[in-house]
């Protein structure tokens, strides 16, 4: 989109108008006696369609958003929100926040992020790629996805539906330090869930594609094909005996392992002393060959952001260097609780890149390295304790023998301890999944307890 067309774009125009509203709210807060204030607003509009067995199931148009304000007064904090941006509604919302702040407890750690850390002039990360598409065209995409999947094999004769979603929106943030920033973004996705049956056995699996830019989505035909291939591979699962075996987490679910790591080094868990990685800065948490970098400013990436939800400038960081933990993930509040400085992680992480320094390979190479053991392609349940690192989850996937997939398995449980699992990583594949905030390949762990049912 050119600069000229952006100026006439409805989202760009709304963003400019909302910035004016946010500035008004900040002035109102000041006039009502707030020592400091911060205002955030997001708006999203878009289209979602879903089909099932060639019939339209749902068509939904979205146009919603809300404004939230937090005020600080004499060490106390009050918050309120509204979806109504009229002058009267904004005055009521600010007044409510100021009144709430009269009754909350004094907390020396609350307050705005330090002004010196803020992104006053954030860079453009090219996150906005609107695509005009009619309802009819969106429905045809979902139908094509299903049709492609149903044509693969007669055993795939049923569908749980295909969905196409396209959204455009923006975020605006301002505070009484004089910061007033915002940016537009888009997100397009297509997914398909298929059901396959063979005799008494019935299985379900899916495939999806997501991108900031519509033209970079996988084709509907390919998404349908992938969904059918996934579900067919799961038919006639077996159980496996209980024992300790090497386990390979396929790349599309490997990010769950890093998700537990994120929770363990997040400020909220650390200052509450509810993490198994307390006081581990500078210590080896992973094998020496492993590095994790954060790169918030990758153009068009799904987790890119020039600033966090407190307005703090995001920056390149090394999370893990040669296996050693380099930083915690802190908000302003958790940083003050710990006597540290915020790392710009209010609202989440920003593009993690996992690098195994040569200890990697293609998916097939990872299977060869696994040898005989378990390939996990789905996880169920929430049996993870971040306080002590205990890990236990239901799983399904494939039994691998001599580096080759032998047969599907289901109704199994995998268990271990996260601290040992992290150090037991043998390799990370080059089969990187780019569809989320963590860019990781498959993860091979030397040994986990596996129990069949």
TrEMBL record:
InterPro entries: Metalloprtase-TldD/E_C, Metalloprtase-TldD/E_cen_dom, Metalloprtase-TldD/E_N, PmbA, TldD/PmbA_N, TldD/PmbA_sf. Residues 242-452 form the Metalloprotease TldD/E C-terminal domain. Keywords: Cytoplasm, Hydrolase, Metalloprotease, Protease. It comes from the Bacteria. Residues 37-101 form the Metalloprotease TldD/E N-terminal domain. One of its GO terms (biological process) is proteolysis. GO terms for cellular component: cytosol. Belongs to the peptidase U62 family. PANTHER family: METALLOPROTEASE PMBA. This is PmbA protein. The gene is pmbA.
């Amino acid at each position: 989109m050119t600069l000229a067309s952006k100026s006439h774009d409805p989202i760009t125009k709304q963003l400019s108008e909302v910035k004016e509203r946010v500035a008004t709210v900040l002035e109102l807060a000041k006039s009502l006696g707030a020592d400091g204030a911060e205002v955030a607003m997001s708006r999203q509009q878009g289209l979602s369609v879903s089909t099932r067995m060639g019939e339209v199931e749902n068509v939904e148009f979205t146009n919603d958003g809300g404004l939230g304000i937090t005020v600080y007064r004499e060490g106390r904090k009050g918050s309120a929100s509204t979806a109504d941006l009229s002058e009267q509604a904004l005055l009521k919302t600010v007044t409510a926040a100021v009144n709430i702040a009269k009754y909350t407890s004094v907390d020396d750690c609350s307050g705005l992020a330090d002004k010196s850390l803020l992104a006053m002039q954030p860079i453009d990360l090219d996150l906005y790629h609107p695509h005009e598409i009619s309802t009819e065209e969106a429905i045809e995409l979902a139908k094509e996805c299903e049709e492609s999947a149903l044509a693969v094999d007669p055993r795939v004769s049923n569908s749980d539906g295909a969905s196409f979603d396209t959204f455009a929106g923006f975020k605006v943030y301002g505070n009484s330090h004089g910061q007033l920033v915002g940016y537009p973004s888009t997100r397009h996705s297509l997914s398909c869930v298929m059901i396959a049956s063979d005799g008494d056995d019935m299985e379900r699996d899916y495939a999806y594609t997501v991108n900031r830019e519509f033209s970079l989505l996988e084709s509907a035909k390919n998404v349908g094909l992938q969904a059918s291939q996934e579900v067919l591979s799961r038919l006639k699962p077996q159980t496996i005996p209980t024992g300790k075996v090497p386990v390979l987490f396929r790349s599309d679910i490997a990010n769950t392992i890093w998700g537990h790591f994120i929770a363990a080094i997040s400020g909220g868990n650390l200052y509450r002393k509810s993490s198994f990685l307390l006081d581990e800065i500078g210590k080896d948490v992973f094998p020496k060959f492993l590095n994790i970098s954060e790169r918030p400013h990758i153009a068009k990436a799904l987790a890119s952001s020039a600033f966090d939800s407190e307005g703090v400038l995001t920056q390149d960081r090394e999370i893990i260097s040669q296996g050693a933990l380099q930083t915690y993930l802190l908000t302003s509040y958790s940083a003050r609780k710990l006597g540290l400085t915020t790392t710009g992680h209010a609202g989440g992480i920003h593009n993690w890149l996992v690098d195994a320094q040569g200890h990697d390979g293609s998916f097939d190479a990872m299977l060869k390295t696994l040898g005989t053991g378990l390939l996990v392609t789905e996880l169920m349940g929430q049996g993870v304790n971040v306080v002590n690192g205990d890990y236990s989850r239901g799983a399904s996937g494939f039994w691998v023998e001599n580096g080759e997939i032998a047969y599907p398995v289901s109704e199994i449980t995998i268990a271990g301890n996260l601290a040992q699992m992290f150090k037991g990583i043998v390799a990370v594949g080059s089969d990187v999944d780019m569809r989320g905030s963590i860019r990781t390949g498959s993860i091979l762990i030397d040994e986990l307890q596996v129990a069949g049912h």
